[in-house]
Amino acid sequence: MTRLIEDIEAGVPDVRIERRTFPFAELERQITLGAISGDLPDIAIVDNVAMNSLGGSELLADLTGRVEEWGQADQYYKGPWEGCQVGGKTLGIPNNSNCLALYCNTRMLQDAGVEPPTTWDELASAAERLTSGDRYGLALSAIRTEEGVFQFLPFLWQAGGDLDTFADYGATALSFLDDLIAKGSLSEQCVGWTQQDVNTRFLNQRAAMQINGPWQIPTLKKAAFDWSVVALPRDREAATCLGGENWVLMASSEKVDKAWEVLEYTQRPSVLVPYLVSFGNLPARKDLADRGTWASDPALRLFLSQLPQARPRQYGERYADASQAVSEAEQAVLTGSASPTAAARTAAGKIDKALGG
Length: 357
Hints:
Shape: globular
Helix content: 40-55%
Radius of gyration: 21 Å
Largest sheet: 4 strands, mixed
CATH class of the largest domain: Alpha Beta
Strand order of the largest sheet: 6-7-5-8
Mean pLDDT: 95
Distance between the termini: 42 Å
Structural class: alpha+beta
Oligomer: single chain
CATH topology of the largest domain: D-Maltodextrin-Binding Protein, domain 2
Number of strands: 11
């Protein structure tokens, strides 16, 4: 990041950048507090899911006209770009992207005579056959935070549903995960696992497969076993969840024109590629697909190939309430305190209220 700042200051006339950082969970709150105190930055990098709340707050500058004049909107993957669209306006530019896929322990699958699964039925069968002793066939995160929801939403979408049809399709997705636990293929402890915990289980070979993102690859390259990555298995349709960050400008800034110059500069391939490589991130731009480490690394290329079908969590300013309802439903089902049908129905009422349905 220091290199990027130095590059910007050298490449954009009359710019000096003062960098401030916050813990991930605090950033959005600090921006909101800054709006009250009058201490807002000119430019910021925010998680893409924060566009739900920040986008409806009138804090972010409308970049629609600038983007039209810039003429590079069509260079971005659909999911990341749509994640910056709020109320018909462009309120950000994708900075980097990621999504979820399925990691497989190559030897374990070979020994069990199992091919990497491509459908839910194949996933359930493979997870059952790969479960042995203290080793589970599959590991995933179902923790009661956005991290768990990030991992659950692909199942909802793969079933053919969305948040507005949660009573039906949410029940289908919850039933699938509940069945995995009932068969012993997935540990009920997943309700307390972060995605890092999941990766640790996979690294310790106590899970034959895991659902996770590309940020785990640097650690996995040190693993004492061979592994591969495949697309998330599908049900009615293929889907994965979009993660990543966006650049945004603050509407209150007196330096919006100069901040836009900075933002535009960061998107130049000569600047963006080394930045993404240094962070181990994937590009949100299609025209960078054949540059950087992701062009030759098979695992990174797999994740990159999934970005066109990665969906943003773009549901409006009360998404946090809807997300909490999803999380509560998953926790209730996987801990055995509610049936999938009952939990999905309860969550659907809360989701509809949050999203104005």
